[in-house]
Amino acid sequence: MVASTRIFTPIKEDLNILNSNLKKMVGARHPILYAAAEHLFTAGGKRIRPSIVLLVAKATAPHNILKSEHRRLAEITEIIHTASLVHDDVLDDCNTRRGIQTVHSTFSTKIAVLAGDFLFAQSSWYLANLGDLEVVKIISKVITDFAEGEVRQSLTSFDPDISIDNYMEKSFYKTASLIAASCKGAATISNIDTSSQHDFYLYGKHLGLAFQIIDDILDVTGSTELLGKPAGSDLKNGNLTAPILFALDECPELYHLIDREFQNSGDNQKAIQLIQQTSGIQKAQDLAREHAQTSLEALSNKYECEAIHTLKLISNYVIDRIN
After folding, report:
1. How far is residue 299's CA from residue 315's CA, in Å, rounded to a whole number?
2. Among 52, 142, 193, 205, which residue's Cβ finds the most Cβ atoms within 10 Å?
3. What is the DSSP letter of 302?
4. Cβ–Cβ < 8 Å for 218, 118
5. How far is CA 152 from CA 146, 171, 299, in A?
6. Is 143 helix (H, G, I), strand (E, B) or coil?
7. What distance in Å separates the CA atoms of residue 123 and residue 224, rounded to the nearest whole number?
């Protein structure tokens, strides 16, 4: 398995600049809001999304030299992602994230909602100040997509009849939309042709879908330490993902557990054991590999450079997470 930290070595200094700028950008006048925002960025995270933005920017910019607008877009992308996590944790009643207490468990649910709103507002302000209307249009739709994804997830909670297609649509709204849009936004700032912009959009879309499917697999097979949040939380919250949807075809007993919403003691663990006895996880892995491969195909006609090579490594890293 390729270590994620090694993948990002070519942009290590750019990520240091990003981390420094993020702390300056989220400064709030009210001490509580500032403390909540600082709490989030102190927790760190892999910074995969802004890393992808920086790499697309380097791959498309003249002489591979980043513009200040590229850097700002990477920062905006991470702020939007972090804002969505704050709201996700409230909706899922998740007490830990990235190994530390979540905002709503550290402060309160009200503060967490306000902190998430504040971060979305900050990202919108910085986005408007990029001065590129096309990029504003591309990125602003992402925030709408987040809401669409959350509504769809809420309406299908504990519903075993949702299709894989519906699951994939929800996964696009919740995860892939931001990665796809920010890839296209970086290419747009570089002023490359629209066909190539679309290729980078497809790269981000399919990478994002693969990433979400792998996350959902790890929720069944992984540890809390690996996930950065409690394992099995998807099942507990009625979020039926690819592994369990595939497993339902082979294991009717899962329907009974879903019907009683995993309320009995040990239901969650029993469901995980039943899923692991089916081919549900393998089928979900195959689906993730298909999307990772499609992301690589989107880059197949791109000239070779270090940034493109690194973007390809990221697609492979996503799959390596389950090996």
Report:
1. 11
2. 52
3. S
4. no
5. 10, 10, 31
6. helix
7. 30
Strands 100-101 and 96-97: antiparallel
Query: Taking CA 224 as the corner, what is the angle to CA 221 and CA 229, rounded to the nearest 5 degrees?
Result: 115
Higher pLDDT, 31 or 282: 282
47 against 142, higher pLDDT: 142
Per residue in 269-295, pLDDT (tens digit) is 999 999 999 999 999 999 999 999 999
Q: Which two tokens stand for residue 73?
A: 């877009």
Give the best-scoring range by mean pLDDT among 2-6, 179-183, 306-310: 179-183
Tell me, what's the pLDDT at 99?
Answer: 59
**Residues 188 and 132 sit within 8 Å (Cβ to Cβ):** yes
CATH code at 98? 1.10.600.10
Domain containing 184 equals 4-320
Helix 48-60 to helix 177-189 angle, to the nearest 10 degrees? Answer: 30
Structurally, the chain folds into a number of domains equal to 1
SS3 193: coil
pLDDT at 234: 86
**Contact call for residues 106 and 39 (beta carbons, < 8 A):** yes
Q: Rounded to an integer, what distance in angstroms lies between the CA atom of residue 296 and that of residue 276?
A: 29
Helices (H), 8-47: 12-25, 31-42
| Cβ atoms within 10 Å, residue 42 | 10
Distance of alpha carbon 57 from alpha carbon 71, whole angstroms: 9
Q: What percent of the chain has pLDDT over 90?
A: 59
Q: Where are the beta strands (DSSP E) in 1-120?
A: 96-97, 100-101
